[in-house]
Amino acid sequence: MNRPNLWSEGREILFEDNHLLVINKPAGILVQGDATGDEPLSKKAAEYLRFKYKKPGEAFVGVCHRIDRPVSGIVILAKTSKALSRLNEMFRDDNIHKTYWALTGRPPVPENGTLVHWLVKDTIRNVTKAYPEKHSQGLRSELSYELLGMAGNRYLLQINPVTGRPHQIRTQLATGLGTPIIGDVKYGFIAPLPDVSIALHARQLQLQHPVTKEVITLVAPLPDAPHWDAAREYYK
């Protein structure tokens, strides 16, 4: 069996035990397969586990949440059906504390606050629209944000979504603050990044382990991309 060229522990593999596999997803990779037919993170993870544990058949990999293809950062995968079921419930009930970092071209006004919108997903165009008032077809979406400071000539924001909706952070920053994320041309930024990613990173997750019940905090290093270089000084 040839070793697949996948990940290294500590960089891409952030945590692994009998029930969980936590990956620092590179931008550009799908979490779960779609109509493009491109190999998703879930398939890569199954290959990784199959090789590592010399499994004769397919390894179990359960997807309990997703981050967008052009977004980097933490993705939790379940290695057992018990973990998958409990993680699904935790994400559904918003019982996982999520922290994202984003780079924008202008500062948010005010510099910190809470945004509440009703989001409507256009599945055909794959875009989400945010409404400031209750919308009959919308899902209530809430996040808090704060400006951490300048990162070169950009602004580094920390975002804590209370809910988990498709494209939530991207559309709420663009609509609610007028601060589209660097590279996110879908939501109003003027130009793409060279690697076609967007400057949004799932930085940290804090949760109760679905089986052991231990509280764990997972932190993902920033991608090795030039647009993130100036943000590294904000590491704690």
TrEMBL record:
Q: What is this protein called?
A: Pseudouridine synthase
Q: InterPro entries from the entry? A: PsdUridine_synth_cat_dom_sf (IPR020103), PsdUridine_synth_RluA-like_CS (IPR006224), PsdUridine_synth_RsuA/RluA (IPR006145), RluA_PseudoU_synthase (IPR050188)
Q: Which family does it belong to?
A: Belongs to the pseudouridine synthase RluA family.
What the entry lists under PROSITE patterns is as follows: PSI_RLU
Source organism: Hymenobacter glaciei
Keyword Isomerase set for record: yes
Alphabetically sorted, this entry's keywords are:
Isomerase
Enumerate the SUPFAM superfamilies for this protein: Pseudouridine synthase
User: Which Gene3D superfamilies does the entry mention?
Assistant: Pseudouridine synthase
| Protein's UniProt keywords contain Zinc | no
Boundaries of each Pseudouridine synthase RsuA/RluA-like domain copy? Answer: 19-174
